[in-house]
Amino acid sequence: MMPPPPPYILEDRTGSLTRTDFDDLYDRIFFHIARVPDRTTTMIYSMNIRGSRHRDSLPFNREPIVILDFGSDERLGTISYVQKPHNVSLPMHRYLRKTTLFGSSLFRKFTASDGREYRWGHRVFEGQEWSCTTMDNYLVAHFDLKPPDTRPYDPHVSGNYLTIYEHFFPLTLELLASLTIMRHIAQHNL
Fold this sequence. Notes:
mainly beta; Porin; 13-stranded antiparallel β-sheet
């Protein structure tokens, strides 16, 4: 009997919201996040290989799979999934809704392509900067920051990780996109 596959552990290469790579430690999936120069649009790309300094020096000619178009003052704008089966655009405030009317902006829920609701919360569990759970509190994914007193193994890696558990692999893109918006909300105090 085969053991279950390990969770996706996506290494955040830079820790930046507008220019980083998320690479699975087991080389199964790779994403690149980049801000369009002189605009407030952030793109998420599916990549074929792990991020590297060499790749950054090559011409970039891929189509994004998610477009996060923030307002001119970094306010929430529109999220567009441009890859099938999603192929949808929504205002971010409708896509990621506060969990309670007068609650913190750092606790939001979204409906994924599987029709279920999921919640992101900031510092809900010890050691996790961001945690995503089902509505009945089953842990789906979490984003962890490198402890401040720990030296990174590689100076070109932030030491931050997004972990996505096996049953939720099909939602990887949605989890990464919604986490990026949640981190943007926190960074800009929205």
